[in-house]
Amino acid sequence: MDAVFAEFLRLRHPQLASEFLAFKANHTASPLEDSAALAAPASPVPACRASALSTAASVVPAAPVSPILARKAAASSAVTIVSAERSSAASVAPSKTPTLARRSPAPASSCSDSDSDMEVDLAPASSTDGFTLCFAIASVIVNMMSYGMCIGFNASLFSELKKTGEIPLDRDSESWLASLIGITTLIGALLTSFIIDSIGRRPAVITSSVLMVSGWISFSLASSLSILLVAKIFQGMSIGLGTTMGGVLIAEYSSPKYRGSFTATIQTAMLSGSLIAHSFGLFYNWHQISTILVFFALLGLLIAVFSPESPSFLATKGRYDDCRKVFRWLRGPNEEDELENMINTDMVVKETKKGRRKKTTSKIIQKKLTYVITSFKKREFHIPVFIVIHLNAVNQFCGSLIHDIYAFDIHKALYGTDIYMFKVIASLDIQRILSTVLTVYLTSRVRRRPLLFTLVGLNILAYICEAGYIYARRHSILPFDHMAIGVFLHHFHYFTNGAGSMSLPTIISCELFPTADKGFCGLICSMVFSMFMFANIKSAPYLFALVGVEGTFCAYALLLLYCQVMLFYILPETKDKTLQEIEDKIRGFSFADRVETLKTEEDELLS
Question: Which domains does the chain have, with CATH numbers?
């Protein structure tokens, strides 16, 4: 049977096959001895642990098995011990509502649930009313509002600088100040992989909040172009780090039933932030606005500090007790299947990595390169990356960004004047928010694939209609013309953006990344997203001058059509599926099922 497992490793993890055979040769101790060692611990244990040990002993397999399966049995016994202890503690402890509190050291003789040093201690939850989950997700949502405020703030900043000349800007400096967010978002994305995989998801959100606060403070004190650029760098890095991490954290916090709705609030929050910034622009100057917006960023930082770490991250670090605490604090006791499946899958992955020796710097570099190459060979890695790159293209080139930044050019083309520009922008902001709220409802009722293809298809239609109208109006070939036609087409385009092309790619992207490689996947996709953003903002003025606004819209429509065709063949359905089920679907099989099959085959051979 060991040969079967070795063959499985050779197919899935070639570099581990030889290590497994060496491990097997060097560890020939009888599994029964390991079980005996587990059943007779060297140090005395409290009464509650003794009861748990006697319960766990009944589940230790008596028949000889392979060393790896023996280790798995030992791990299962340990899980049973923890569960028994938790049950014993629950029977004598009064019921409490889950609250956040600093952990106090447990006495040496007490029955503690975990020996790990978790940042916050969460009381065992027997039920949840959803408040704890909403509190944790609020840290992401408030930060997303700050990201939207960064976009909306541009209107007040550039319009006032042009009118007052307080800080002189020419065309080049203005375009660089607008597009710098694309480059700095890439820098933030480069930090994402290291922070979320090595330090945690929660520290990533806190870091993003600190950078955002620094950006708004820099804007409020700015008196030169250099300080404005520094402020943009801070905000761009914050957005690059937070946009990727925010969606991942919501996906890992929330239940599959509500994950789509919670993730859809990301876009709603960003659009609400943009509307807030535009609204403040009616009453305050850009210095005052930046001072006010500091407090929104500080609120997001405060909530993030008191939020728990992601259960998925705790599982990947082997902190299974803390993982169970946080998971039940967030969702209650009714989703144990997903919890245990996540933990068991992580155990299987770690089992294949045991027995490795410490390596030199050259070996570590070689290991990293091998990891990169091996990751791209895995279906559960390269397929989600390919999908999310195309979803990012849909998000960036759907038209929302250039409509916000180059509003003057587009309004002149659609209406022939910019007199009503600010009134139209306000109505478009409100309508886009309502469209995004509609997506929250639609994602809970309609499958992701048909919804995405329908709304992005309407986005393509909106581009074509706007381009045709602008061309016909410019060449005076319309039999009838009225400003209401342009207003209708403009709002129709924003409806397709808010309800589909901006919201749905964000929702789906957060559901596709494999748990073990979220950081690397997020890094690659964030880098591509940043390049798309920079290319979109920098190229739009040149495209307007070369082929006109209508020609630019046609080019974007062709790009969206290409993305539609590619996604039609490779995008899986994710509605009402756990993250592990989605990962197993893309991979083509489940690790947990494979190991169970191997165990069954070994039992049959031994019998």
Answer: 129-307 (1.20.1250.20), 378-576 (1.20.1250.20)
